[in-house]
Amino acid sequence: MAYKCHVLVVGCGLSGLASALALAQTGHRVTVFERSSKLQEIGAGIQLSPNATRMLQHWGVLEEVLKYADRPEAGTFRSYRGDVLSQSPPVSDPRLVNMAPYIVIHRADLLRALLSGTRKHKIEVRLGSDVKEIDFSKPSLRLSTSEVHEADVILGADGERSRCRGILLGHTDPPYSPGDIVYRISVPVADITEDHLAWDLKKRSSVNFWMGSGGHVVSYLIQHDMLNVVLVYAEGGSGKVMYGPQRADLEEFRSKISDWDPVLHELINVEGSVCTKWTLFQIHEPNQWRHESGRFVLIGDAAHAILPCLAQGAAQAFEDAGVLGGIFSLSVGRDQIPDALRVFEEVRKPRASDVRHRTLDQKAIFALADGPDQEKRDAKLRAGADHELFKWLWEYDAAESGREAWKNFTKTHEYGIKPHNGIEGTRESSIL
Ligand SMILES: Cc1cc2nc3c(=O)[nH]c(=O)nc-3n(C[C@H](O)[C@H](O)[C@H](O)COP(=O)(O)OP(=O)(O)OC[C@H]3O[C@@H](n4cnc5c(N)ncnc54)[C@H](O)[C@@H]3O)c2cc1C
């Protein structure tokens, strides 16, 4: 089949896979290079908000994803002591989740569903392919085996510890820890019976939050038989840095939440519960995601790794893919790729930056110590949650946004209209 452009993607995580799907679906040839010899998603559960599932719908894989996912029908915000503050979190608000669902899913299942899409669209995934160098001008990449691959455009989707970002910036740019640790407990629910304190958490699919000084806990059911319980906790900068999940002692977790809801303690006691912990990282916001050659751009965590307090990391990677797919679904000649990547960055960078700042706000709100600010937060929740933030986040259609931006760009550049004072003039205004 004749294809439009050939795209090379560095990294086969959620971001690389999503962009591969978005571009292959619109007739582009995509080759993905993955360093690992086996595909795997680290971690257990992931929440995907409607701005992400809307993209899965666009790429024709939502049905497959829903085979494994749960749609939470309820949710609760609690104080750390267990007092219920609100029974109407946005995840179950029909006004927000009707058009595209809010889902929770095991990461391995999400990966499996996305991979089914790569087979359908004949995306080539090359495992055991460690990308060492990029020549931005061609553009081409060189693997550790010295093999060189050339194409029309390269996407750097190699995660928060991105080598691509270092090559683009001309210096290493490691992620940094703001001092937060994540503890995750996987609790098998088979033996939780009606008389157990945690029965409510098992009997229906719901997302539950507990908010306390220094951190918050979120829990939801995945694969119908396991409660995914995650504590994000500000430990300060002095602790040992842990890259990726490491086995942790359940008692250590208990010590962090000693005066929290007894339900959480009962969960830890369930036979077979397993605890892991690791350090959370974010990156400095790069000034630019694109190389000036216009043939390379960073996406996903490589461009905008954030903390998980709004559950938006993967969703933002899906938005990147959605915008790219939207732009490249329209007529983009090979010589227009630099413009297309510029438009992509103009659409995506400000929104990703906003989401990062709102994530940090949310982290602070979740982790308030007892006092006037916490009382104000709780009163607001009791009065009925204000869902403006979630409307802004979740109603966004990245593919539409990409299409619109490219159409506007081509319209304003059709007759050689130049940007004035950094503002693109419309055709009409320039005629006047
Ligand atoms: C505790 C926690 C909970 C989270 N919960 C949520 C949530 O509920 N919802 C949500 O939307 N997001 C969530 N996130 C964020 C989400 O997991 C990430 O944003 C997302 O997985 C990033 O995907 P990525 O593909 O950009 O990066 P990665 O998953 O890191 O993938 C990068 C890939 O590139 C490969 N690679 C690296 N270097 C090279 C190289 N040189 N050559 C070839 N391949 C290479 C790697 O092997 C890897 O496969 C959470 C994150 C954490 C830590």
What is the CA-based Rg, rounded? Answer: 22 Å
Count of helix runs: 16
The span between the termini is 46 Å
Instruction: Give the structural class.
Output: alpha/beta
Strand content: 15-25%
Mean pLDDT across the residues is: 91
Cofactors and ligands present?
Answer: flavin-adenine dinucleotide
**How would you write the strand order of the largest sheet?**
5-4-13-14-15-12-17-16
Q: How helical, in percent, are the residues?
A: 25-40%
* Unreliable runs: 416-432
Largest sheet: 8 strands, mixed
Overall geometry comes to globular
**Number of beta-strand segments:** 18
Could you characterize what this model shows?
This is FAD-binding domain-containing protein. Keywords: FAD, Flavoprotein, Monooxygenase, Oxidoreductase, Signal. InterPro entries: FAD-bd, FAD-dep_Monooxygenase_BioMet, FAD/NAD-bd_sf. It holds the Pfam family FAD_binding_3. With 432 residues, this protein is an alpha/beta fold. The chain is 37% helix and 21% strand. Helix 1 links the parallel strand 1 and strand 2. Helix 1 runs parallel beside helix 11, helix 2 packs parallel to helix 11 and helix 12 packs antiparallel against helix 15. The longest helix has 30 residues. The chain is globular, with a radius of gyration of 22 Å.
